[in-house]
Design a protein that fits this description.
Layout: E1 31-35, E2 42-43, E3 48-54, E4 66-70, E5 76-78, E6 91-95, E7 103-109, E8 112-113, E9 117-121, E10 131-132, E11 135-137, E12 148-154, E13 160-166, E14 179-183, E15 194-196, E16 207-211, E17 223-227, E18 241-246, E19 252-257, E20 270-274, E21 277-281, E22 284-285, E23 289-290, E24 294-298, E25 309-311, E26 322-326, E27 329-336, E28 351-360, E29 367-374, E30 387-391, E31 394-398, E32 412-416, E33 427-428, E34 430-431, H1 436-440, E35 443-444, E36 447-452, E37 458-467, E38 474-480
């Protein structure tokens, strides 16, 4: 159930409203406190940008002011505001204009200009899952399932890209506390896996997310959060959250048990960080009973979590689903609505083919009033304990438990994501190989992460997993495409 992954178009200039209305608000220049809830904001051309601060000025029907991006040659390019409702005294919603480059972002009003904030223009890494070609890379030190994978890009004099594999269980099915990391090479291959500081306690079927200056207000290299998880092979859930401090070389220098725990003990749920907030949805609680609850917590500059706030619930309870976020939407793909133990490899009658998504209100960070929407098209087959990669307007679902899983008949399926957040029809991905044909087996409860390499290309990584044909046989193979 693992995953990770914003649109719009824009070009142009912001002009004063009719009649030359002046901004309301305090005297003095505008103040920008955050862009996308981050201290090191970035995004590709056309991506949505939320600027927060004060003194931007607003009137009920007009906008007076300009958002300026660097053009990379000493000049500026103005961004377009699509609607007066996207400009308020404390917020601005716009998009990165064509021709923008890495450099200063400034808000200008009749009261002056804000202090510049560096905005990094990132390349929109292409992701075309219709044709799959899996390549093997460095194997895990031990076969695992129920583990988590996460990616971090550490900026500095040089950029270090690291993939983590956290916890999970080996062939004994007993959760482990081990944490491994591997550096990403220029073409996406991984270096050898190295153990770093272990978790304070063993966990499997947890969630792992990374907060950096690119998606939150934290400083330094960032933090790796390990949320909840199962403490034993039967699925006894935990509410504990561990926060690991990421060092400049990618190692974890130490773990802290946060005072803010999950709202309830959970394993096998969804999690994502977006615009400085942490979201969790679904999962299984005590007795492996699935839930449909959704919560949000803010992340402060020190990496602490705020109080959990209840959000619109999922359409139905589920665990063991693929989850992720893309372009301001949260997704739940497939899963199981029954009371199922984590290591159960049977094809349950409660597997789901439903896809649900929810839009996040950029201003409030809450799920919008529409709540979760059941997608018009479903997965081609009911599926659970699978993974999905979401990026560049596509979703790629891999492996898991489904009819035909023992032969890998539908190992990969994909669909496009529409601008309104809905997902198109799923089709079978074609290609010269599958994970099964490359020696990785037909797997479920594997780990997945999306990452970019040194050349800016996007990859989906699938690591380990239990064997559909022989549950309890854990794989240590790692593949990327």
């Amino acid at each position: 159930m693992r995953v990770r992954g914003w649109p719009s178009v824009a070009i142009g200039i912001l002009l004063a409203g009719c009649g030359g209305s002046s901004p309301t608000g305090p005297s003095g220049p505008p103040v920008v406190t955050a862009v996308n809830g981050a201290t090191l904001p970035s995004g590709p051309t056309g991506s949505t940008i939320l600027i927060e601060g004060s003194g931007f000025g607003s009137t009920p029907t007009t906008v007076s002011g300009t958002v300026l991006f660097s053009n990379g040659t000493g000049g500026t390019i103005a961004a377009t505001i699509a609607s007066p409702s996207d400009w308020g005294d404390t917020f601005i919603i716009t998009t990165v204009p064509s021709g923008a480059a890495t450099g200063n972002l400034v808000v200008q009003t009749s009261k002056g200009s804000s202090t510049p904030i560096t905005f990094t223009l990132s390349a929109g890494a292409p992701f075309s899952p219709s044709a799959i070609s899996w390549t093997s890379t460095s194997a895990l030190p031990v076969g695992l399932s129920g583990h988590e994978a996460a990616f971090v890009e550490i900026r500095g004099a040089t950029t270090t890209r690291v993939v983590y594999v956290v916890g999970g269980a080996d062939s004994t099915r007993v959760p482990r506390s081990t944490v491994y990391y591997s550096t990403v090479g220029p073409t996406g291959t991984l270096g050898a896996w190295t153990a770093t500081t272990a978790l304070p306690a063993a966990r499997a079927f947890s969630q792992a997310v990374v907060a950096t200056g690119a998606n939150s207000s934290v400083s330094g290299a960032g933090y790796l959060y390990v949320l909840g998880g199962a403490t034993d092979s039967t699925g006894t859930p935990s509410a504990t959250i561990y926060r690991g401090t990421i060092a400049s070389d990618g190692t974890i220098s130490g773990w802290t048990t946060l005072s803010t725990a999950l709202p309830a003990p959970l394993h096998s749920f969804g999690a994502a960080i977006f615009f400085g907030s942490l979201y969790i949805w679904g999962g299984a609680t005590t007795g492996n009973v699935p839930v449909k609850t959704v919560y949000r917590s803010s992340i402060d500059a020190a990496g602490a979590l705020g109080a959990w706030q209840a959000e619109a619930a999922l359409p139905t309870r589920r665990a063991y689903f693929a989850s992720g976020s893309f372009s301001g939407y949260l997704y739940a793909v497939g899963g199981d609505s029954g009371t199922v133990t984590p290591n159960d490899g049977s094809l349950t009658a409660t597997r789901m083919d439903q896809v649900a998504y929810a839009k996040i209100d950029l201003k409030t960070r809450d799920i919008t009033a529409a709540g979760w929407v059941v997608n018009g098209t479903a997965l081609g087959k009911t599926r659970s304990k699978h993974t999905a990669g979401i990026a560049s307007g596509s979703v790629l679902v891999t492996a898991g438990l489904y009819t035909g899983a023992a032969t890998g008949s539908s190992e990969n399926t994909y669909a496009t994501i529409n601008v309104d957040g809905s997902v198109g029809s799923f089709g079978g991905a074609t290609g010269s190989n599958t994970i099964q044909s490359r020696g990785g087996g037909n797997v479920f409860n594997q780990a997945e992460a999306g990452y970019t390499d040194g050349n800016g290309a996007f990859h989906v990584l699938v690591a380990g997993g239990d064997d559909v044909s022989a549950p309890g046989t854990k794989h240590k193979t790692v593949f990327f495409n």
